[in-house]
Write a structure and sequence with these properties.
The chain has 460 residues and is an alpha/beta fold. The protein has 16 helices and nine strands. The protein has a seven-stranded mixed sheet with strand order 1-8-7-2-5-3-4.
């Protein structure tokens, strides 16, 4: 019995030494011993071997499933006017008359939306080209060969028997230190010392939590990092986005007041740093929210505000509409593009399918979190540009840098219906084409839309 206790004590000592001195201590100073890098390289080799083995298995066993492509419809590229002209093979649009063939354009668009719309697929996990040895992937190939089954079994043991307990330990330590550290710093008088200690505590704890996810983060263009008094906007894939960005700098968080454990963390963080938390009643008051954010930005000594203008998590393939409220505050916008590598785990949080606890458990049992972060040059609103146009310009820059699809759809469609304004915009555009106007006038001329018989017909 004594031998058993001595073995257990030795294992515990080795465990704590690994956690404290090999992981936490380097993380606190932003250093790395290179273990995670080696681990990622080994994973890449294993996944490449598994891909080759699966491809060979498809040739030997025709019953092996083939991954589906991300889209099942080949959509025609071009504007409404260009597609209508192709349908009107015998005459052009210059005549300003309605043609029955125009109906087929809207008929085709409607069928495309029913079969494979551009919104719904953005809120489901991204399909991989090959299996990444995780049982929760859309396609499982673990029974294709004995060697692949053994590798998969060893992977399950490593992820659940080694990595998961280690990550849980680091997450508990990181969050505990965050609560205790920010609470103690909150007792200090306002001044440069308090601000410095607050940033140090936040940065240290977020780095420990990132190590708890085996996060490998590559930051690009650090000269464009958000500065104090500015607003950092980024595409949103997961709640872990906050941890990823906060590893390289401190931010003032913006969000709704919560209860429970999350509420405890929010209250402790607010004692040491001017985060901006809103009550549920305040969130409905757009002017009150904007006023508080403007007051924060006006103080050039405060940390940059971190905002995710999409308002919901999107599945790492696209960037959806940026809400214009974030761009009405004023000040300098610092865009950031975030792109996760799906080979090592699905970072997307499908809130309709998994609660927060389930999602975090899935992340802690994945292979790793591998992500690229690009800091884009700061942007300001231009003369003659409104907030919506500015938001679209920033969104396009983020999508282009991150290699993501730029979509104009509102992420709120995840839980709501299409706004009437979207339908009316298409009606106005078609009406303007019929009456034969040019350029921007075709979209903006409301009077011609009201006079057009075809447009009134479309309302029926």
């Amino acid at each position: 019995m004594e031998d058993l206790w001595s073995v257990a004590a030795g294992v515990f000592q080795a465990w704590m030494f690994t956690v404290l001195f090999l992981i936490m201590l380097p993380a606190m100073f932003g250093l790395s011993l290179g273990v995670t890098g080696v681990y990622i390289q080994v994973l890449v080799k294993i996944l490449e071997w598994a891909t080759i083995r699966i491809q060979r298995g498809r040739q030997e066993q025709p019953s092996v499933p083939v991954p589906l492509p991300n889209g099942i419809i080949e959509r025609a590229e071009g504007s409404m006017e260009e597609e209508l002209e192709r349908l009107r093979s015998s005459r052009s649009l210059d005549g300003g008359e309605f043609a029955l063939s125009d109906v087929f354009y809207f008929y085709k668009k409607g069928l495309e939306s029913i079969v494979d719309d551009q919104v719904t697929q953005r809120f489901s996990s991204e399909e991989l080209a090959s299996w990444n040895l995780l049982t929760r992937t859309n396609q499982n190939f673990r029974y294709i060969s004995l060697r692949l089954t053994i590798i998969w079994g060893l992977g399950v043991f490593v992820r659940y028997g080694v990595l998961f307990p280690l990550r849980i330990t680091l997450a508990i330590i990181g969050l505990s230190w965050l609560v205790m550290g920010t609470t103690l710093v909150g007792f200090l008088p306002e001044g440069s010392v308090k601000n410095w200690l607050s940033e140090l505590v936040h940065l240290t704890c977020y780095r420990i939590c990132a190590r708890g996810l085996s996060a490998t983060i590559t930051y690009h263009n650090k000269q464009n990092k958000p500065q104090k008094g500015g607003i950092c906007v980024a595409n949103h894939t997961t709640p872990i986005d906050v941890v990823i960005l906060a590893n390289d700098g401190c931010y003032a968080m913006v969000g709704q007041v919560h209860g429970g454990l999350l509420g405890v963390i929010q209250r402790s963080m607010s004692r040491s740093c001017p985060h901006v938390w809103f009550e549920r009643s305040e969130m409905r008051d757009r002017h009150a929210v904007t006023s508080r954010l403007r007051g924060h930005v006006a103080a050039k000594t405060k940390l940059p505000i971190l905002i995710f203008p999409e308002g919901t998590c999107v599945n790492n393939t696209s960037v959806m509409m940026f809400k214009k409220g974030s761009f009405e505050i004023g000040g300098t916008i610092y865009p950031v593009a975030i792109k996760y590598d799906p080979r090592f785990g699905d970072a997307f949080w499908n809130s309709g399918k998994f609660n927060m606890v389930s999602y975090l458990l899935r992340m802690m049992t994945s292979w790793a979190i591998v992500v690229n972060v690009w800091y884009l040059p700061p942007m300001t609103i231009q003369d003659g540009e409104d907030a919506a146009q500015f938001a679209n310009r920033v969104k396009s820059a983020v999508a282009d840098q991150g290699g993501l699809l730029d979509l104009a759809w509102d992420g709120g469609l995840k839980r709501g219906k299409v706004k009437d304004s979207f339908k009316e915009e298409q009606q106005k555009m078609y009406s303007s084409i019929i009456v034969g106007q040019n350029g921007a006038q075709r979209v903006e001329e409301v009077e011609s839309h009201e006079k057009c018989p075809a447009a009134r017909y479309m309302k029926v």
